[in-house]
Write the structure tokens for this entry.
Amino acid sequence: MIPGNLLAVALFVLHFSFSQPIGARSPAVSGRQILSIAPASSTCAGAPKPNECRTVNQAAAAISSSFDTYGITSPGEIAALTSLMAFETDDFKYNINYYPGNPGQGTRNMQSAAYNLQYAQSIPALYSSLQAIGGDPNAVRDLLTANDSLDFGSAAWFLVTVCTEATRAALQSQGLAGWQSYLTNCIGTAPTTDREAYWQRAVQVFGAVE
């Protein structure tokens, strides 16, 4: 009999393998690129929550994997998602919402408990664990944040699952206006100056439309 944890890993790999679009391959994100976007991510030394912190190379590998999994290939979408995660996690130092501390909110795009549940339900490897924990929002979040591929995969999942095709098209080709529309109409937040600074750095790094 296969141990439960090994079976979960196997199912997770199968899920990611079969969810990749045929013929789509995302450009790899490098640690140097991440550092240019999130300058404070070079080290986790002194991080407030060391277990949550990820360095540039760790973040780059997980982000690249998530883009492959969900077929994110356009520079505009790559810039938007990477900058969103960097901003929401204070340069990848957190994956749990502490301020104001909404129950179940977290992962690298800091999505709500309701979306974390939907995300977890989309992953076959988590089926048994979800049944066992019932509706505890913090436990659902913890299932996702315990695995870097799932933790960093939330932003790409949200884009392809929740955002409209019109929003994605705008991100791909409309520069600042497309990014503002993504935040307002899909993420549900305002395009502040601080957020834009992260996005502008990501645009320069990935060569997206400004």
